[in-house]
TrEMBL record:
SUPFAM superfamilies: ADC-like, Formate dehydrogenase/DMSO reductase, domains 1-3. GO terms for molecular function: 4 iron, 4 sulfur cluster binding; metal ion binding; molybdopterin cofactor binding; NADH dehydrogenase activity. One of its GO terms (biological process) is respiratory electron transport chain. Pfam families: Molybdop_Fe4S4, Molybdopterin, Molydop_binding. It comes from Paenibacillus mucilaginosus 3016. Its cofactor is Mo-bis(molybdopterin guanine dinucleotide). This is NasC2.
Length: 709
């Protein structure tokens, strides 16, 4: 050994690795668990690990397996580090200056030739509130296009649509999670909390220990069923019918809270009339559930002194998603179980900022603070905040999947995507891929070379949660500040800064001059003032002092609003709307050619289109490929073996998957998680039929044929 090496080794031995611990938040789901990132720095390498923040009041200091490994993708060497331009078929590094110059010429040329609306913007719910707000402003002011929408269209739109119609406002959970243990009956409809928001399972367990009865509605016996007293194994697509059956029991067996209905709702007579016509036997047959079990479930909810209903994508991701949710809201209102401790409703929000992401203007019809782009007063107010003439604000555009259709028809020629991987997560994904290939200019701002980035003309390296500061609104409606704790890798830039840089080269820089995220928040506060999602009373300082603040918070002295609807609903007359809901069959039912129902969703280890979690070996090794969950009897009929391969075909395409027997799923239904792209992308099969109100696609049911492969 040379003297130098000996010296070097000795040095290393005497210098213990330097340790640094910083507080951050998990970037994945809507619980937004806070955690500590530990960095152990020795001379050459840094080692990272994550531990829970024991003081987190929401999770009681827990993290799930995704959180425990959340540092992994963010510090990965495969992160994008330079802007890249497609030259001769491959993406090659270029400078920011060249990239921005190219964006200016592409965007200007497309808009000159085809008009302002020929460039679209597509956002996501993992961005901070500041970025969601800025993206909406960027589309309307820097590009002047009406075409902006985001992935929350596939996520929260049905629950939002239903809550707006019924309550006059949409905040995911009407009560803080700390009230869950006060409920004596909880209905979990199409929500798999054990795998999708694992760290809040403890609060439901606590409720159960206090004597709460839990009813789970899901075509599969999921891990969440471990806390269920009753499992209603509904046929996918029949939730509204099931709710009609339960409502009928509530009505006929005297569980209606007459005083509440009288004082705080409208529409009872119409609902009563409708329920008279509902046949429980028919409902039971449609849902594939014994009628007695439906009656029992309704009685438990009806008789309970307090109760809460939660829905998630199982109920919502249907072409009848809004109607489905509304029928569960009918149950909440009919029994008067809202606006009191332990009584309420929750749409269990999905993405990290799934709640804030839907409030501040990245939706086609929306302006900040839940204002509407077609409302003249709202337009005038926001135009004033932005300092632009009202006439310059575009009108409303179309929903996320409809943007893809518009691209496919050649109407939209340029697209800017920030924080989404649409060729994996859109329904009818093969068409979406074809459409994106037709674009004159596709710009993707991401952390990795995602499936969608691989198709792009230009890819820009954006920021991860460790580098990017801003506020996130978690599932309770609680706004949290997340601080930046690491430098950006390579030449990556902050997502919001990239938007400002593009605005600058498009000649609109004067509207986008911020030096830090907090300045954008100050503007967002003003823009949301007087809107439904009012953040105007919040400051970073106030938020940090109290582990988050619940909106609405209309003044600086205001404490925020943990529990909604204590005294009134948000419609002008203060009343909530009961509404008769006619059950509709899903758009595809089983036929001779396509005899099985396919439903889709999530597994514990992976997150959404999988780009981050597939790039995390600790997670990917535990669940490396999508499995077709199928009942052994059904598999036997088809001739599939456990661990063997199957071919699954819908009207839109075919994919091939590994088979996993599961006696826990209905015999007429199969389940496939959607975290993979390419030949394993289940969205090549899913049905893009859209809800008439909210434009949510029917991710949760389509008809398929299955054969051995
Ligand atoms: N591990 C993990 N956690 C996540 C995510 C993730 O990708 N991975 N994503 C986050 C996001 S963005 C979201 S939106 C949430 C989603 O959270 P969830 O909505 O809870 O997740 P899903 O698995 O999509 O669907 C929930 C359940 O609906 C059931 N289901 C299917 N069809 C029907 C039906 O017709 N009726 C009923 N009643 N149930 C049905 C499925 O069997 C499934 O168990 O999770 C968040 N958390
Ligand atoms: N079949 C089926 N399809 C579904 C669903 C289903 O249940 N079934 N669920 C739908 C739902 S609920 C959702 S929310 C959508 C989500 O689906 P997508 O919109 O595709 O969401 P992600 O996978 O989160 O995509 C995020 C992309 O942005 C990148 N990214 C993550 N964080 C950041 C960031 O901070 N900055 C930047 N610049 N990039 C970032 C990631 O690397 C990734 O490539 O999928 C929908 N699709
Ligand atoms: S529950 Fe959600 S936020 Fe918490 S650690 Fe798991 S994925 Fe992250
Ligand atoms: Mo979602």
């Amino acid at each position: 050994m040379s003297d130098f090496l000996r010296h070097f080794q000795k040095q290393q031995a005497v210098q213990p690795p330097r340790e640094k611990t910083t507080k951050t938040e998990c970037p994945y789901c809507s619980v937004q668990c806070t955690m500590n990132l530990h960095e152990e720095k020795s001379i050459k390498v840094s080692r990272y690990s994550v531990t829970p923040n024991k003081e987190d009041p929401v999770t009681d200091g827990r993290l799930c397996v995704k959180g425990l490994n959340a540092h992994s993708h963010a510090v990965d060497d495969r992160r994008l580090r330079y802007p890249m331009l497609r030259i001769g078929g491959t993406l090659s590094p270029i400078t920011w200056e060249d990239a921005l110059g190219r964006i200016r010429s592409e965007v200007t040329e497309i808009q000159r030739k085809y008009g302002k609306d020929a460039v679209g913007v597509y956002g996501g719910g993992s961005l901070t509130n500041e970025e969601c707000y800025l993206l909406g402003k960027f589309a309307r002011v820097a590009l002047g296009t009406k075409h902006i929408d985001y992935n929350g269209r596939f996520c929260m739109s049905a629950a939002a649509g239903a809550s707006n119609l019924t309550f006059g406002i949409d905040r995911g959970l009407t009560n803080p999670l700390s009230e869950v243990p006060l409920a004596k009956c909880i209905i979990l409809a199409g929500t798999n909390i054990a795998e999708c928001q694992p760290t809040i399972m403890q609060t439901f367990r606590k409720a159960r220990q206090e004597g709460c009865k839990i009813i789970v509605i899901d075509p599969r016996e999921t891990a969440t069923c471990s806390i269920a007293d009753i499992h209603l194994k509904v046929r996918p697509g029949y939730d509204a019918a099931l709710a009609n059956g339960m409502l009928k029991v509530l009505l006929e067996e005297g569980y209606v809270d007459r005083a509440f209905v009288e004082e705080r709702t409208t529409g009872f007579a119409e609902l009563e009339e409708h329920l008279k016509k509902v046949s429980l036997a028919e409902v039971a047959a449609l849902c594939g559930i014994p009628p007695q079990l439906i009656v029992e479930a309704a009685r438990i909810y009806g008789a309970a002194e307090t109760g809460m209903i939660f829905t998630a994508r199982g109920v919502e991701q249907h072409a009848s998603g809004v109607a489905n949710v509304r029928n569960f809201l009918n149950m909440v209102l009919l029994t008067g179980k809202i606006g009191k401790p332990g009584c309420g409703y929750g749409a269990v929000t999905g993405q990290a900022n799934g709640q804030g992401g839907r409030e501040h203007g990245q939706k086609a019809d929306q302006l900040p603070g839940y204002r509407l782009i077609e409302n003249e007063e709202h337009r005038a107010y926001i135009a004033k905040v932005w300092g632009v003439p009202e006439e310059s604000l575009p009108r409303k555009g179309v929903s996320a999947y409809e943007m893809m259709e518009s691209i496919n028809r050649g109407e939209i020629k340029g697209l800017i995507i920030l924080g989404s991987n649409p060729i994996v997560s859109n329904p009818n994904a093969a068409l979406v891929e074809e459409a994106l290939k037709k674009l004159d200019f596709l710009l993707v701002i991401d952390l990795f070379e995602s499936e969608t980035a691989k198709l792009a003309h230009m890819v820009l390296p954006g920021s991860s949660y460790l580098e990017d500061e801003g506020t996130m609104t978690q599932l309770e409606g609680r706004v949290l500040v997340r601080r930046a704790i690491r430098p950006l890798p390579g030449k990556a830039r902050l997502d919001w800064k990239i938007l400002c840089d593009i605005a600058e080269v498009l000649g609109k820089g004067e509207y986008f001059r911020y030096t830090k995220a907090e300045e954008i928040f100050q503007e967002l506060r003003i823009a949301s003032k007087g809107g439904k999602a009012d953040y105007s009373g919040m400051t970073y300082e106030r938020i940090e002092q109290s582990h988050g603040m619940f909106w609405p918070c209309p003044e600086e002295g205001h404490p925020g609003t943990p529990r909604m609807f204590e005294n009134g609903f948000a419609h002008e007359d203060g009343r909530a709307r009961l509404a008769p809901i006619e059950h509709q069959n899903p758009k595809e039912v089983a036929t001779r050619k396509y005899p099985y129902l396919l439903t889709t969703g999530r597994v514990l280890q992976h997150y959404l289109s999988g780009v981050q979690t597939r790039n995390t070996s600790e997670l990917n090794s535990k669940y490396p490929e999508p499995l077709l969950e199928i009942h052994p009897d059904t598999a036997g009929e088809i001739g599939l073996v456990n661990g063997g391969r199957a071919k699954v075909t819908s009207k839109r395409g075919t994919i091939r998957l590994k088979v996993k027997y599961s006696a826990k799923i209905r015999q007429d239904t199969v389940f496939v998680p959607f975290h993979w792209g390419g030949d394993q992308c289940v969205n090549r099969l899913t049905n893009p039929a859209l809800d008439p109100v909210c434009r949510m696609p029917e991710f949760k049911v389509c008809a398929v044929s299955i054969s051995p492969n």
